Amino acid sequence: MKQELVYEKHEVDENGRPDGGLTTGKGITIIWQKGPLGRGENRLEPNGAFVEGVIQAALGRLAFYQSSEFACDESEAALHHLEAALAWLEHRTADREARQVEGTHEL
Question: Which of these, 40, 54, 44, lies nearest to 85 by C-alpha position?
Fold first, then answer.
């Protein structure tokens, strides 16, 4: 059974950049981060979710399944792919941090 989202609204700022939004589905509501966090002394607290956090939640749930009688090869493969996705996003963040643009809309 495919889980279908009930509602998605992805917002953009005045420059067309991703800027918050909302995703809901049965049992879930995700309010996405709105605006960059900034850097240094001006860094803000997050006001919404990041993709990395959603992936970590899915990883946690699948790992829980894998520790139960419902462990299976398919869930193990899904765990592997989610871990790879998270690693790539962490690589992107490290690259942006090295270029000192993490927390900004700079490319």
Answer: 54
Q: Is residue 83 pLDDT above 70, yes or no?
A: yes
Q: How many CA atoms lie within 13 A of 12 on its CB side?
A: 4
Q: Are 105 and 71 in contact (CB under 8 A)?
A: no
For the chain, which residues make up each domain, given as ranges? 1-49, 50-102
Average pLDDT over residues 101-105: 96
The pTM is what?
0.90
Nearest to 61 by CA among 72, 45, 47, 75: 75
